Each structure stands twice: as C-alpha cells, then as structure tokens.
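Duplicate of #3305? Posting structure anyway:
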C-alpha cells in the first residue's frame, strides 16, 4: 500500500496564517444553535463567516496571499477570477495594502457582488458564462499586463488562509466530531480538513456540493465530471476542483453530500428565521446537507461553516416568499361564487373569522369558462401553518366551491 502523499499545506502553515490575520480580519463567532439542533436532530455549532467585513470567509485566503507578495509584485498589481466573494476579499485587502487589483467575474455574477467589488476600488471585467471562462480571461490579462494571478483556491497560501476557519472552529468547540463544509474549488474544505485532522484525527470532514455542480463528488466516486445549470449557490458553482485541494480531499475528506435547490432554499430561510442572519446559497449549503441527509448526522456534534452572506436582495425576497408557500403560511385559493352583491364580502368575512389575512384578490368574470351568473375569486392568503390552511379551506367549503391552487393543506 502506497504511503499518503505529502500535503501541500501543514498545520504550522495554517497557524502562521492565523497569526498574520490576527487583528486584520474578524474572529467570527462560533455559536451553538439550540433551535437548529432540535430541528435537525444533532448538536449544531455555526461558524458565522458571513460576519466578515466582506461577508465571506474568502478574506482569509486573499489577505494571506497578498501579504506574501514581494514589493515588485505589489507595485505591478494583482488579478483574480471570482464569482464574487474571492473578488471582494482580494479587492478590499488589496485596497488596504495599496495594491492595484483587477477582478474578472463571470457574466452571471449577482449585481450586489459586482457593485461591492467595484466599491472596494478594483477594476472589474465581466467575461464568460462560467468561472473557468473568467479564469482563462484573467490569465490572459495577467500575462499581457504583468499582474500576479491570485487563484481563489488552487494555491497553498489561499488554502492556509482558509484553513484558519477550521482552526478557530476547533479552538472554540473542541468537542465537535464532524465538520460540514461547502465545496466549490476546494480551498476551504482542504484547509479546514488539514487543520481539523491535525488537531483531532478522528473528526469527520463532510463536504457539500449542489446536484448541479458535484465535481468533487464525481471525482471521488470515479465518475466522469459533468456539471452545469442554474443554481442559487453560485459561490460553489465550480466546474473544476483545484488540483491541490483535490490531493488533500482524497486523503482527508470522509464523504461529500449533494443538495438540491429546494434544500438550499429551506436552509436560507431557517438561518434567517432562527438565527436572524443572512446566508447566501453557498453559505447555507452545510445546513441544507443536514436537512437533506438527517440520518448521516443524527446525534453527532456538528460544526457548520456559514461561509458567506452575499445574496441578491430580490433573490432573498423570492426565497422567503417561496418558503412561506412551502410551509403553508401563504396559499393561493380559487373560490367560485355567484355574481351577486355582497359575495366578495362574505368570502372575506369567512377568511377573517378563520384567522386568515387576505394579501391579494383577483375577481374573474370573463375568462376560464366562468358561467354568466358566476365569478371566481383568486385569493392570496396568509395563514399560520398547514393545519390552519385546512381549517380555512373547510370553513370556505361550507358556503362555496374552493380549490387550493398553491401552498399546502397537509397537517
């Protein structure tokens, strides 16, 4: 049996990065969540990396790398490709260190991330439909302009910086037996795995990818890599796992779990409602994995990395409303009534007496095969929960013909 290959980063490298970062980034909270623990059936501790200044863990690796540049490299400037969070980390700390920064971002990058990157003083170039296409353009510009390329994950300095997340997690909660870490290119999980396994060799390291971008999962399972599609977790929508992170993951990562878009939406809503904190899609991936694979984590002591909170506000609003529909707290009903005075008031009265709150009403007389002396009402109603939906439907059904169009009446 071949001996394990030497790791590209050591615990000593990560501890050195931690000393370098001290006082320059936030030592983010690592807090136990009683409510999430009850909901998920395991003990959950959350590392709130969304509370960094740029709302992401990416500052750690970016500052570690920038601090290692020579004076000549700093003078020429740096360039990076990123879907958003690495961009902001590089741009912000490059600005602090007076290093000119150029960031190449995929065309699909959320506007909020583009704006924040520019606000930090970086030149932003939007190019390509994937991170790999943006990376190719970044390397072309780097060659043409003599800039130092700051890779988002395939670099020992970046891995060491990101590994300080895992180091802090076990310093604050040494009893943990499992770390759950989102996986894009692999910089975060590889750094955390090196730190955690060095401090506690029997700890389990679980990666999380989306079903649309399962590159590491496919590699570790000997499958051909096939990724793509829309995802709300654009921060981990990465086609290629980095070579250095992959070498680490082969040795230290115990398994990779996949989550779908609905799982991630549920996790975003839970973080906001329970912890009163904003998670982007990638940031919620760890919680999504526990919700989707409860048996894997049952009764374990789990540390989650909430790795970022940069989410488009319109997307967040949509996810929250979809969550209300999914939980039966907002429903859409169709009520058939006679086209006579007072019928709308009667329907509204029944809804009100049942404790529902009407948000919208559409009164239809002309379309959809409605009889000449009839009409239909489509109501958007706020309710307490799925059981309350059933009560409301039953109350309306005593007087009118009612159909539940969206939401749930399952108690």
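Output from current build:
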């Amino acid at each position: 049996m071949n001996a394990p290959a030497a790791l590209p980063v050591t615990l000593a490298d990560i501890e050195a990065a931690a000393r370098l970062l001290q006082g320059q980034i936030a030592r983010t909270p690592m807090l136990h969540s009683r409510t999430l623990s009850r909901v998920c059936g395991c003990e959950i501790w959350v590392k709130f990396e969304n509370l960094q200044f740029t709302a992401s863990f990416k500052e750690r690796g970016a500052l570690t790398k920038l601090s290692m540049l020579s004076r000549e490299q700093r003078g020429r400037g740096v360039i990076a490709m990123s879907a958003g969070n690495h961009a902001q980390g590089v741009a912000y700390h490059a600005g602090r260190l007076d290093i000119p920064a150029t960031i190449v971002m995929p065309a699909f990058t959320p506007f909020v991330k583009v704006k924040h990157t520019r606000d930090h003083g970086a030149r932003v170039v939007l190019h390509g439909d994937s991170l790999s296409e943006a990376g190719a353009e970044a390397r072309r510009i780097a060659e043409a302009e003599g800039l130092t390329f700051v890779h988002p994950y395939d670099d020992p300095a970046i891995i060491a910086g990101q590994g300080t997340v895992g180091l802090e997690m076990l310093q604050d909660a040494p009893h943990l037996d499992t770390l759950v870490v989102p996986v894009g290119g692999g910089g975060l999980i590889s750094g955390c795995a090196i730190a955690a396994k060095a401090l506690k060799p029997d700890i389990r390291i679980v990666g999380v990818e989306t079903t649309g971008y399962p590159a590491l999962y496919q590699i570790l399972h000997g499958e051909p890599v096939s990724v793509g599609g829309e995802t709300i977790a654009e921060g981990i929508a990465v086609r290629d796992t980095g070579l250095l992170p992959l070498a680490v993951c082969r040795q230290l990562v115990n398994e990779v779990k996949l989550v779908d878009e609905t799982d991630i939406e549920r996790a975003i809503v839970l973080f906001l409602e329970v912890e009163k904190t904003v998670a982007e899609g990638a940031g919620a991936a760890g919680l999504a994995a526990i919700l989707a694979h409860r048996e894997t984590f049952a009764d374990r002591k789990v540390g989650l990395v909430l790795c970022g909170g940069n989410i488009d506000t319109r997307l967040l609003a949509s996810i929250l409303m979809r969550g209300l529909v999914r939980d039966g707290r907002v429903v859409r009903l169709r009520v058939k009534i006679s086209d006579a005075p007072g019928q709308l008031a009667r329907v509204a009265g029944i809804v009100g007496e049942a404790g529902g709150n009407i948000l919208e009403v559409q009164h239809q007389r002309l379309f959809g095969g409605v009889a000449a002396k009839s009409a239909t009402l489509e109501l958007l109603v706020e309710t307490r929960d799925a059981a309350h939906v059933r009560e409301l439907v039953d109350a309306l059904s005593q007087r009118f013909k009612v159909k539940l169009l969206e939401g749930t009446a399952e108690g």
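Confirmed duplicate; merging threads. Residues 59-149 form a domain with the Rossmann fold fold (CATH 3.40.50.1100). The chain is about 45% helix and 20% strand.
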